[in-house]
Queue: 4 jobs
Job 1
Amino acid sequence: MRRRHFLTLSASTLGGVLVYSFDRKTTLLASQHKPIRIPLRFFTEKEALIVAAAAARIFPSDDSGPGAREAGVAIYIDRQLTGSYGRDRFRYTQPPFEDAPSELGYQGKQTPREIYRDGLKSLAGFDLLSPAQQDHSLQKIESSVFFRLLRQNTIEGMFCDPMHGGNANMVGWQLVGFPGPRMSNYDEIEKYYGKAFRPKPLSLAEVTGAKVRPSEDEP
Amino acid sequence: MKSLPAVDVLIIGGGWAGLLMAKELGSRTSLSIVVLERGPARETADYANAMDELDYAIRLHMMQDLSQETVTLRHDASHRAFPLRQHGSFQIGAGVGGSGEHWNAQCPRFLPDCFELLSQTTNKYGADALPADHSIRDWGITYDALEPYYTRVEKLLGVSGKAGNLKGKQIEGGNIFEGWRSEEYPTPPTKVPYFAALFRDAAKSLGYHPYTAPSATISQAYTNPDGISRGGCTYCGFCGRFGCMVGAKAQPTNLLLPIIQKRKNVVLRKGAWVRRILFDSGPKSEARGVTYVDASGKELLQPASLVFLSSWTFNNTRLLLLSRIGEPYNPVSGRGTVGTNLTHQISVPAATGFFREPLNRFMGSGSAGTLVSDFDGDVFYRRALPFLRGGYFAARAYGFQPIASFGVLPRSVKVTWGSEWKKSSISYYDRTGVITFTGEHLAYKGNFMDLDPTYKDKLGDPLLRLTLNWRDNERKMTDFAAAKAIELTRAMNAEQMDPFSGLGNYDTTRYQSTHVQGGTIMGNSPEHSVVNPHLQHWQLPNLFILGGSTFPQNASANPTPTILSFVYRTADALVDRYLKNPGPLA
């Protein structure tokens, strides 16, 4: 039995209002001054702090808008790793595993969970470094399978439907003007030639009113 | 092994081809029909709750479960092959409706000369115009013979478009290079998204002949000859890799399943994994039925009088090889026919343009867009060109979603993460447009399929092995297309533009298209083909093979309407001739 781990996020890193979906329900958290404790499914607290810090260097919070911290990318990745994706449920994993030309795709035996667990060991203490030191240490692993996965998963956590734990408050969608699963653009598609059309984003649950179970929650 | 009661007709695979055959034979005869589909049930009602980019477009939940079965690939017969451990250059669907549920519904016909490629090219340009190691073949049928079936398919699907060649008369605004058609499209063209309109105007200014892409995601409400009604597209942009939540996209589950479900003589068994086709050889050679593993893991024998193999290109070929039906192709001796003529399709982002104004890329549909066919087939070909045949350009508005689209940047931006990358990616996000090029992939002696000696599926059966690489013909055609696409992008007044970087070796990690052909090809003689042009097996006359596996080569255009036209033609031959007098149809 694994000890319960939490990711504690300080109010100052979070900005105003935050939506996280966890424990299979959506919770609205008005983050005032109290730190928020989010239960972790896969990472230890130490690992989650490193993932959160690294994702924040890949997709920083800066003058071009909110980033991985506000979107909850570390929480998103934590959930993905417990689900079918993290366990390679749908990948062909029969041996032999051998090195192949890059055009043949990833041939490794390691699942995403294993890649993270190993990769994070090489980043011990990362969350305590200065941003410049953090960038330097990420540059050193830029070409690794672990970094490529972390970068891809960070983008996913920025822009996924909020039911997956990332894109909290749809901050990612607002950055790029994506409205979510909008049922009809029939009246607008030939109307906004060359002009931005930016309807307010709505999540899948808000659009359909149905409870959708994300794949990471499936047994 | 338990043997089930015999049925008249057994259909392996419940996708477009198998379910159309089940609908036709189920409604036109009283034969008892069983369809074996190894995936789960699907229906339109599931799809609104599946409008989730992560689970469907990134994790690909409608696709085949590769942990159970995949293919292996090598670039050359002298190399060893590696399994495709995750989805990549093609994405094969699973479940009822197959890839016909998650397709983009682009719905073109093939050019007439594609069916007689070997003879027409040789007659016009001489045999030396063909690449030295080609294995191009005629199909054994002409476009004229197939035309009535194309028309039937377009009515079944309600295809939206504008004719460019009505009974030989060229019509501006349609594709003037297309083969003649006997009737106008059943529904008018779809709406034109901004990016497609920019491309249309630029193409016109350069003297080309742009037209609105033919689309089986329909422009307005339509009732087909079977009485099935569907509403028009809402341009929500959740098409390819998704099922359509309003049923505007033609899918086997909204067009064929409702009819099949009403027929008491048709049974659809899900979770049924066919392992072998059984047959008798000798004087009375014929298929006897199949063995399959059901959802509970039990292996069963299902006898049948008539067997249809319609389980997509790979599994059609693999089941013949596993069942030892016919002679496997040997690339050294040139003998054997099963596994020959493997082709994919050239499908590249020929030019990526970065525009000054927003494109509203989230709006669209998988088949909405503008096409230019001035370089397709034989339209532009001349002896001075360093490649044979051609393809078409497209500006499509698929409905772009942010996980897959974020971070596509001009090559001048070198960073891939951090503040500067984020800022550029946000700035370019809705100003990026891709001109795609879809080109003909010729057949070569060295591109083929056989059984892998090392890797196995979940039941211990060998995986299918692909030996596949591009040749200079495809590489040079793509370079030419990239240069043309840059001219078009410039005429669209893009701020910056990058050409495609070149084909190199066949790359399984870049999605290209789910259009793979060959393995069980049709033709006029059993020496070079597996089935006759009625898709009937040369040696086992009660075995029919449906789908892209019967195509001798790729034809630049997407294959679904052509696949369905052949299914209709075979259904007619069965009802009108075979059932009255079973035996060879050719």
Job 2
Amino acid sequence: MLRHVLQRLLLAVPVLLGVLLVGFLLMQVVPNDPAVVRAGPTATQDVIEGIRRDLGLDRPLWLQFALYLGRLARGDLGVSIINNMPVLEELGNTIGPTLELMLASLAWSVPLGIGLGTVGACWRGGLLDRAIMMVSVAGVSVPVFLLGLGLVWLLGFTFPVLPFSGRAGPLWTLEGLAGIILPALTLGGVFVGPVARMTRSAVLDVLGADHVRTARAKGLSETAVVLHHALRNALIPVVTLIGLQIGFLLGGAVVVESIFSWPGIGRLAVGAILSSDAPMAQGTIIILSVGFILVNLAVDVLYAVLDPRIREASGP
Amino acid sequence: MKLATTALAAGISALCLAPAAAQTRAPLSILRVIDADRYDPVRSTATSAAEVIFMLADTLVSLDFDMKTIKPLLATSWTVSPDGRTYTFDLRRDVKFCDGRPMTAEDVVYSFKRWIDPATRSPVAARAGFVKDIRAADDHTVVYELKEPSSDLLYQLTLSFASVVDKAAVEALGQNFGVQGFNATGPYCWASWTPRQELVMKRNPHYTWGPPIYRNPAPQIDQIVWKIVPEANTMMAAMQTRQADVTYYPPHIAIDTMKRVPGLNVQQQKNYIYDVFVGFKVNKPVVEDGTIRRAANMAVNKDAIAKAVYFGNGTPMHALLSPTVIDYDAKAASLMPAFDPAGAARLLDAEGWKPGPDGVRVKDGRRASFTLYGIRNDTGPRITEAMQADLRKVGIDMQIQLWDATVAWGKLATQEFDAFILSYPYVTATEALNLYFKSTQAPTPNRMNWKDAKTDALLDAASTANDPAARTEANAEAQRLLTQANVWIPLVTQQMWLVSGDRVEGARPHGLYGAGLYKGLDLSLKR
Amino acid sequence: MSETIALTPEAAPHADFAVARRPSLLRALLRDPLGAAALAVVLLVVLAALLAPWIAPGDPYGGDLANTLKAPGEAGLLGTDGQGRDMITRLLFGLRTTLGMGISAVVIGCGLGGLAGFAAAYYPAASGVVMRLMDVLLSFPAILFGLALTAIVGPGLRAVVIALSVATVPLMARVVRGAALVVLRQDYIEGARALGMSDARILTRYVLLNCLSPIFVFVTLRFGQVILLGATLSFIGLGAQPPTPELGAMAADGRNFLFFAPHVAVLPSLVIFVIVLAFNVLGDSLRDALDPRLRR
């Protein structure tokens, strides 16, 4: 078990190096001059040249890269080209709200999705199943911005019961809790569908499998069969799905953060990349990718926990 | 179970605390759509920086609500030498920085020298004129000496770029001045900034020297929070549901509705100057032909754009400059071709631009086609698409390429495009024309590559005139020349609408360099 | 990631599956009313997109600024947009662009991903390198790819198609590899190898055919996701440029009028919704039809 985890960790190292390389190369080919961005619309050529020298952008590329890697090795992600803010500080400020938003969204959408999917699978073909599938298929198909704007219109504007203009405070305050409801409903709303669908397929697959048939033949109750045999095995693809969908969720988060003025890392990344703020863009790419790798690692470990065959196969 | 108990206890204590918290008034919240990169007066040209800096810092002189009259601020009075080269400012004695230190003439001299020092890399240094020397004659007198007269100097000194800042804070914070901290003599003091989210400022307890354009020279609000709300619908709903107090960035489509919402106060600043225009790179193929530029000017229906894109809350422009501005020339305006698509078609026909097989005109084997760059904001796509449709009707093909705001400035500094669309705030004709049309300003901000000796001479004459009449005459000549050359297609003057909730008293739209609340004085909260 | 990602082995198709399935697929699909309806919608949508230039009542580009934001019924059956253009016309042409974008991204992404997945499954030596490469690709959420690509090649459909394709490749590779590994474990593959069948023959004759079920399900699901992701990218302004009609960009364009003229944003969003819904329902039906054990 431990060996399995260590093996996965080691395998993540080349992945991370690849991420760093791809991230750096992407930012280098961006045909946008940070000095011009910083100088603003009415600056003359002299001012732009001066800023370019100040920022070290007139140095050869390899030297810039080497300096960047050297700082990175010391844990220094640099400062924003645009506003001189330390990248690490900005990342620290924005990662929390995004995690908050994602966790709040997952917290209600994943259990609901798994529940709906399981119920649907057990009553396969029935009216309830059809209704659940309709709802979840609709959830899979609805554009996230339509859901967000619709919720603002309904619960913020027409019946003004919930706030929607940003993060009012930490989650443990009443304002903070109220402020996250609409964003989390929006982001989670597009996630219930995929989870329910995948759970249903997975449970159905497992219900038809040999060992479940055996369990049924042994005279176990249907509830016991579903809970102990089917759902447990079915959770494996569901966990994969959730791991793989973190990127999808992040895409949704960018839109949700923009609609609800949520101060998250998605908006930071978008702004940094679009303004060619290389250190900031690098920082967000590294953080997001590391997060993604960690999630996948966690998915692997969960497999091992959920699937006894792997545990045995890679055991000591 | 334990968790539930804890949550319950937290809930109860929060409820008990609520009445106590309600006794201190919630801060005044101002909504806007975009944040600035930094709040260093001399290092940002963004209106989103200026609107904040006006409240954090003061200038020697201020501008009245008419956008024309100079009024005192840090300087109680000033004299100009007969040759127009020496300005002597007499400063107030009672001014203190946010940290309590009294302000002296040395602080003014330091701030101005920092503004024009090449090492500061200020993109707005040229606005200070050709400075010979700036010095403190005594603790309360500043002498501003120029190599040649600058007819626009006092107006430029009202802008946020000429703010007086604290040397100690600038030196301590370095590149982080206006990013992690600030110290100046404005009515409000820097508290905190979370980029792209909010900027918080607190009342300057010492402040009693507001400009005479306000009834009360001291600030009356304890705390102001500037919030960024990029989404138009969210912004509107937040105002209507009282989640925020003030905005002067209401979506154009929503202004008429907001006027009807009980408890929302909607006011217009009629003297606001913030123009939208299309400029041509006059040395690029196709648009180098004055006929094409003139025909395009005639083909674009500016009234329809103002009505449809701005929902009537934009003023169509029929002159190079806004009629509100100092030195606006009515005769130049009469030279601007009127909307006349049929006339444009006839003009093109007469000049040899004949319709090609795909409807686009051709002359000497060259298609009447050009590429326009612009910024993707709320109006950019709609204005350009409308123009594109108008131009197609007379056989001119306009390709559109819009860029995200931050990328756009880089793209607009290149020579890749033939025309561009921009909007800009200005105070005087001298400022606007000198900024954009001088040959020395190419390639940016003179993105038209307009290099004309006569224009240069007129603009120099205007900016160095010691006599207002001479300045007006030079500016008028320049406007006539540029109008006839159709270097720009002026489109719309944006309007400023200040929306405030029923908690707010004393709000009045100002709009200098886009700053709707200017110094933020006279504002108070009812509850 | 590794061997552990295989779909549940219990779902392994039977050896005779490939032979028995073919003739009854369409019939099984049509027997399911929802599936039949979805198929009809998909065909209709594709037809409408193909015929757009001939059936559209107006000009997709030229607008009438005196007639903007008219509600459905007020001007034309579905009203006009912010430029005064007929909504039906815009929607038909938008459908064309959006479907083209989705199909290109899915074909490119699934084609490359499928090749990578089969290669990784069939040649264990290549597996490590290929799947590690896929992991790197997966470490970049599609939205970041879209952003970075936009910065490089400029905003537009090209950037979106590339980003969506790249984001699809590793997902497809994982699904295909997982399914192929299960098939490769079956006795009949050993049999085929023993009979001296070539790798290519085994891959096409047995492995590919027996992997079709999860692939079909993935592709249909992915088509929906790609359309939605494309709409998201357009919503942030990275997609089709004005005045190109594209459903996601149209929805983004209309969002500023949401409270005043909701049809401008809602109609294209609804069309997106219907397309994605149809493909998802079709995917479900296909899955049921393709899996003999669940077909009753």
Job 3
Amino acid sequence: MDQLPEILEGCKRNDRKSQEVLYYQFYPAMFNLCKKFFADEHEIQTALNNGMMKAFKHIDQYDPAKGEIFNWIYTIIRNSCLTIIRNSRTEITIELKENIPDTSVDDPFQTSAWEDIFISLDKLPPTTRAVCSLFYLEGFSIKEIEQQLAIKQGTVKWHLNESRTRLKEIFTKSRET
Amino acid sequence: MEDSNKHINQKPDGDYPKPDVPVGDAWAEMKDMLDMEMPVDSPSTAVNTSWIKALKLILPLITAAGAVYLFFELNDKNKFQKTAEMPFNKQNSERKLNPAENDFEKPIAKKENSDKDITNLTKGSDAHKSSLPELESKSLPTFESKKESSHRSNSNHSRSVSDYRNMTKSEKAENKSRNLVSENSIPLKVNPGNLTVRTRDRNLNDKAANKGNLSRNPALSPNLAGNNMPKQQKKEVEETDRNSVVSSRQNVGSNLVKNGNDAFSVTSEADKNTSILKMTHFRILTKRVYSDKTPLKQNFKSIPIKAQFLKPSNPTDQKQNTKALLNSLHIGLQWNTNLPSKDYGRFFTGTTQSNTFYTLLIPGIWIGKNLNNGSMLMLKVNPYNQYFGNNQKIDSSSTIKSDTSGNVTKNIHHLNLSKTSGMSAGLQYVHPFTSKWSVGMGAQIYWQNKALLNAQTINSRDGKVLSDSLIRIGKTSENWKLLQPYFIAGNIEVLYSWQKLQFGAGLIIPVTSMTNAPENKNRPINGQLLIRWKIK
């Protein structure tokens, strides 16, 4: 990571070697991020590469004074995941009017290993998985999820309720701890 | 950018599980994408892309501008044709007012002054001035008809100097006596009022001319006819001719007096004053001489047809032209729907994944212009149009999964194009076969804004469909890159007219691909049903 400025300069020059180094550097974290939203490898790969492509294309817009390059790319790839979810949302959902605290709660997955988390998430339908990941793993509020996924607040709540029901065991464990 | 840190609780060097897809494979795919979208040779891809985007905007504009230009060009041609169909007299009268335009006649006029014999001839030929309009209008078709007839008419009106010199003695004698008669009766200025009498003379002359292969010159008729006529008839004809000459002298006299000339003086001064009229006459004679040797087109070479014909003669004409143009223009609304050749189940499912039957009610607008042969050139614009992709495959990929027991499963993912929506515009030529039935052919351009895709995951082993869902995509979607922003299609339709309505059915055949896949061009054929309502 000491060579990051040179790598970024190389990426700005569209140097393939620099792009490869950066890609290899962030790949595990970004793959993990995409896996929070998708079960399918193809979708993970698509979201990741689409996000990286955007990052490479607009790397000259990155300002080191405003934040780290990792966070910048992380945000781009997460948005890429959300775009795919928005575009491929076909599930029938019900709006829920029940009161759920509009704040981020403790991460029920905090004690779990990544493998266990992904096994749990695989039990959820795509949009519910995305809502669950955003709420519990990424720390988004219900309002923010509503904006990001362009769905109603009641629907977000329904997805959260659905994820709690389906992952009852994990949530119970979380409360106990 | 400052918000980018929000909700990021991971680090680049965190303890992450080993990715399911090896980084090498992922980078290979990434590299392919980079090579495609950001080739190393051209680092300024962004600039190029913007240029292409601008070009994509400009091209349809240029096409539209071209169509408008052609439309008006066609209109101008119609105007030209109308002007060309004007009576020749009207066009001549315009030219007569401007002798400078008749430069090509001057040498003949000079010759006329220098040669006495020619003066005589001129005097003789002046007798036909008054009958020019009729002669012109009647003789126009002979320009391109039989050579014989034109030759005959030439001998009447345009005996040139050489012709006169080549005359035989007997002909000269005849001519002398003819001139005597001419001078006595002053047949130089004969009014159109005498044309009735002359027509009768001409009938007689025709017989004489046919017999002796002589001229049909009405002024010469008494003399020529006299050779073969009985005395009594000859007398009658002479008397008739004399009467006509007297009346013509009175008419011409009054005209010349008005112009300050002596009506009865056949002097060179009087000739000069009437030179414009003579020139006009000679111009026509010249044309006739040429007509023996050259086609009609070449005869008109010296006339600045375009400059004169396209210029509206007066504001009234201009108004009439505008009115005629407006009369030939029609405007109306049209409701049309495309039909898929398969995948009917999603006919009403819009690109928003909801039922969009109401889109059928959104009308388009058309403007048409009648052409000469009863056909029509039509420009049509539809603010909303959906085009069916017939569920053609636009993208596919595969994934290999292995479970804990070591079983490997290969899944194939297909993306099929169900439909796209956007706007369309086109030019069409409609040709009527009967009063009710007509056929239209044209080209249309479709701009695609949204699309509905069908995503399928199939197990490669048993071909079982694992998932089948619809995806709506817009311009901001990742999958949008699979589609072209616009495509061009040709269309053919059969129309039935009933009062102010037209009902039609047709086919739309894309010329360019709807999608971006270079190896797989998607050009699905659609049917079309339409109703057109003519407002004006």
Job 4
Amino acid sequence: MQTNKEEKQPLITVLKQLESQYDVRFSYADANLKNKTIVVPPEGLSLDELLKYLEENTSLSFEKLSDNSIVIRNLIQKRNFRTQYL
Amino acid sequence: MKREDLIKKWLDNELNTQELEAFKALEDYENLVKLSSATKRFKSPEFNSSEALNTVLHTINTAKQYSLNWLKPLLRVAAILAISLSIYYYTTNLDTNINTLAAQKTTIELPDASSVSLNAASTLTFNKKNWATIREVILNGEAYFKVAKGSTFNVITSAGTVTVLGTQFNVKQREDFFEVVCYEGSVNVTYETNTEILKSGDSFLIIDGKFIAKEKETKLNPSWINNESYFKSMSFAHVLHEFERQYDVTINSQHVDVEQLFTGSFVHNNKELALKSITLPLNLNYSIENNNSIVLSRE
């Protein structure tokens, strides 16, 4: 990557690169990741280290469902924002 | 005693003296006696069954001899020929129809070396006989094509037509959704009056009549070929419909916001895992009822 490594990048873009790098799939609600940025994780991390890094640098949880399927959830339950249906 | 009863008893010889008196007192007594003696002369005709049998057998045997007639077998042969010819003509001109049910996929070889993989709940129709002159298939649903080089190859859907020469591409037409992704070579997509040329990695996507721009496709083939459905910023409703097709289930999502966008994937061979990967990111709970009905609720 040509850009400065310390510079923050859109989380969604970073995840897309990580998907092919680590051969995993991230599943998430677009709304939870919108406008979030992150510094590209250092190279050479194991998958578990990578997930830990991602959790520490976002307010999100990264949960491994299987060897290559990772679910991203909002740590802060958005109860207050939920409007009732019907 | 009534008149009828008296006559009955008289015929059966069961009248006692008293009744006989009463009977004789009937005004038509004389006529009755006449009638009775007259009817005694009727007799059923004699019937010789063995003689009748002989006659029938004789008739059957003589009829057999007549069937040596040459016309009948000839007509039979002609009829069989006519039927088989018409069946042959009918079947060779008939369109070939391939269907997949929910939770089913299949791969078909077309008359040339082209192949089509058909995703769940899809239909493909083509004509083998005209294949040399018209390479054309009608698609309802989703399919991944590997088209052998040659004359023009058309994929006709209710939403639009895809024209290629020889290439690999995926066509998905579902409800208000029409998507073409080119994985190799180039593809012409005709939608309404517009025609667009896709190169390798390009996509064409229309949702609800609106064109949606998509990033370059980096994968070499569609994810569903590898038993996984992948979505990039798709409405949750779209994801749920695909889930229903892949697992042959119905999903009740009435208490859930299905307009929100989902990115991610679910596998086709593990229902629980697949459900988790689409519900957890949206903070949803699920419950499976009767094995093929799933109810979603908010956490």
